[in-house]
Amino acid sequence: MRILKVKYNPKENQLHIKYALPSLGGEDDAWDEYAITYKKADPTPQFIEALEWLRRDALVLCELDDTFKIDQVKVSGVSFSYGGEKDVMGAVITFSVNLDTANSPMNSNTPHKPSEPYHDGDAQPNECLPWECVRHLDQVIVETRAYLQGERAQQDMGLEDNTAPGAEEIE
User: Domains of the chain: which residue ranges?
Assistant: First the structure.
């Protein structure tokens, strides 16, 4: 499974995922694409944390890390691509920055960069994603796959003392 796009809106608790699976009976490199939007997403804390790890990466990729503080940044999504002879992953991070002088945030995308050169000798190291960013993107992929397999945030049952209603203590 390839994750192609992840977009999370915490205000509306919506999660949009676009992914691809190898095409059945098709060519070796053919992929079928699927998209799903969860209206009541409730992602796990690990999913949300994986997106938050990308905040500094977004600033670094846009050369804004000296301009903005990490707590001003909100990452809302990632678009992934796969290409070249080695099927190299590339990505674009979508984020917003709260500005002190505006009533609305600045919305932006990072430039698309591959995780490594598509072909041997193709790209210079600064043309590729930093290894820390690749690690963070890999974690977004892991958490997105887990979400698609049913992992959700733990729901609060409202039990203050961890005792089920009507249950008696055993002495």
Answer: 42-148
